[in-house]
Specification:
Helix content: over 70%
Structural class: mainly alpha
Oligomer: single chain
Order of helices and strands: HHHHHHHHHHHHHHHHH
Number of helices: 17
Largest sheet: none
Length: 414
């Protein structure tokens, strides 16, 4: 175990405390409870023999599901959908190989909801956090729904949204940023599986750790100072049920297709706009004979935090540039660049593992617009509060992502 990473984890919590709105209103039961829960979960999933067995089993199952999902892509797109390393492949093409898997996983998740399987899993974790850590039933439910669905998770507690406190809304936003929906996770797996065969298991562990970490940091930055309406209440997951299995498959597939076009549009616009800004910055920096860009700017921002959680010194710059890139270009681009670094043997295995955990979240400016816009559309009465806490939520989620990277660093075995 890399014990010095513990200091990095405490450092992140202390930094969050310094940025807190109300330092005297901290829920220390929640903070220390989740902190040690994360340590215990990480230990059993990444160090214990039975935990490693579960980890490897999950990895094999998900990789197999990704293989199955790609059959539809091959049927539609032919050789363009053949993944790297296989005969006839043109290399990795995100649109034809990675993104189509979203449709399959969206349909699969929809089936699991139809049979009430996913509902019970989410309700169990929401119940646990509601009882053990004393957070409201509504925010507990949304936090754990976000592991499996996206912005639509807010609809699971629609009757309570308008009465949510400032702290609850902050937790809802943070949870949206810090976790990735299971259908989108398939894209990351597809990007990295050739160069990092264990990626699926690590991403599942990252998702499990990220949800409670997001709650912890959100409650440190914006502590609860009111009495939530659903405090101490157990809520059932209220998702509209399809009338039949076929309808569930159709609905899930259509939702996946919408997500693909949403991601595609976002990547096309953001990469273009960021490149435009970068060209201007590079032009100005060249005039002053310095090497500078938007990616480098945000990369320097994350350098001390990545060093603090245990990224090897010689790799810190490369990984910090990836995290900075994620902030402006989304994690899809960053995971592809991570795959390139691995392929070219530019970074150590420990850095690969830590980066895969830190990048596992919608923690970037494009998501700020998506989540803020989506929730404001549902509760326009809360627009002022949401605009005040949205950037804080992005900071909370960023710290939570770094925290899960620190857990991975703590238990890393070469």
């Amino acid at each position: 175990m890399n014990w010095y990473s513990i200091f990095g984890l405490f450092g992140l919590v202390f930094l969050a405390f310094l940025m807190s709105e109300k330092k005297t209103k901290q829920n220390f039961r929640l903070i220390f409870g989740i902190f040690f829960l994360e340590l215990i979960l990480g230990y059993f999933l990444l160090k214990q023999q039975w935990g490693l067995w579960i980890f490897n089993l999950i990895n094999k199952i998900i990789i197999r599901l990704v293989d199955i999902a790609s059959e539809g892509s091959k049927f539609l797109f032919g050789t363009l959908a053949i993944p790297p390393g296989m005969e006839g492949s043109f290399g990795f093409i995100l649109f034809f190989q990675g993104l189509p898997t979203i449709v399959f996983f969206s349909a699969l998740i929809s089936i699991l909801y139809y049979y009430q399987i996913m509902n019970k899993i989410i309700e169990f974790f929401a119940f646990l956090f509601n009882k053990v850590f004393k957070i409201s039933g509504a925010e507990s439910l949304v936090a754990f729904s976000n592991i499996f669905v996206g912005i639509e998770s807010i609809l699971t507690v629609r009757p309570y949204i308008l009465t949510m406190t400032r702290s609850e809304l902050h937790t809802v936003l943070t949870s949206g940023f810090v976790t990735v929906a299971s259908n989108v996770m398939a894209v990351y797996i597809f990007s990295l599986r050739e160069v990092f065969p264990e990626i699926a298991g690590h991403l599942v562990v990252a998702s499990i750790l990220s949800a409670p970490a997001g709650i912890m940091f959100s409650k440190i930055l914006v502590p609860e100072t009111e009495v939530p309406l659903t405090m101490g209440k157990e809520l059932a997951l209220e998702i509209p049920k399809n009338n039949s299995l076929i309808e569930a498959i159709i609905q899930g597939s259509q939702d996946g297709l919408k997500l693909i076009f949403g991601i595609t549009a976002l990547l096309l616009s953001m990469i273009g706009l960021v490149t435009l800004v970068d060209v201007l910055i590079i032009y100005i920096s060249n005039f002053f004979e310095i090497n500078f860009s938007l990616k480098i700017l945000f990369g320097y921002l994350f350098y001390p935090f990545l060093w603090m959680i245990g990224v090897p010194t010689e790799d810190v710059t490369k990984i910090s540039l990836l995290i900075g890139e994620r902030l402006i270009l989304t994690e899809v681009v960053s995971y592809q660049d991570l795959a390139l670094l691995i392929k070219e043997n530019q970074i150590q295995q420990k850095s690969v593992v830590i980066a895969s955990y830190v990048l596992c979240g919608f923690t970037h400016f494009p998501s700020l617009g998506i989540f803020l816009g989506g929730i404001q559309a549902i509760i326009p009465e809360k627009t002022k509060v949401l605009s005040q806490i949205s950037f804080k939520a992005l900071i909370s989620a960023t710290l939570a992502d770094l925290f899960t990277g620190g857990i991975a660093s703590l238990y890393f075995s070469s």
